[in-house]
Amino acid sequence: MLVGLKQYIQARTGQDILIVLHQMGSHGPAYYKRYPPQFEQFKPVCKTNELASCTAEQINNAYDNSILYTDYFLAQTIELLKQFDGPFEPALLYVSDHGESLGEYGLYLHGAPFAFSPKEQTHVGCFGLVGQPFRL
Length: 136
Ligand SMILES: [Zn+2]
Known about the structure:
Blueprint: H1 5-10, H2 56-82, E1 91-95, E2 101-102, E3 108-109, H3 119-122, E4 126-130
Antiparallel strand pairs: 1-4, 2-3
The structure holds zinc ion.
Zinc ion binds at residues 27, 97-98.
């Protein structure tokens, strides 16, 4: 997703630009499809969309591997943006589109109606960076 982004930004030096990156993140139920093989650090892993056929440990491991990969992706994005401190004032805002139930209260995924959703589904991961994190 970051391929070509450096050139895209360089070509817009002197302009104000907003870039939106939309990754698959940890979108279930196919958590095992959300990271490359080298990020399968937590094992055993649930390798099906049928979560009912997996153990809680397998589901959690696949989910945690997807989080590990998102962590790597965000670190790569921050490193890319560091290169532009000076000609730009880089900022990064990360927001997940929803939380995820991983078996709490017997629930999985994120499709419960909002009024009945547990905090695991409605409280989203979010952070923002500006200034110092992008200084070399
Ligand atoms: Zn989603």
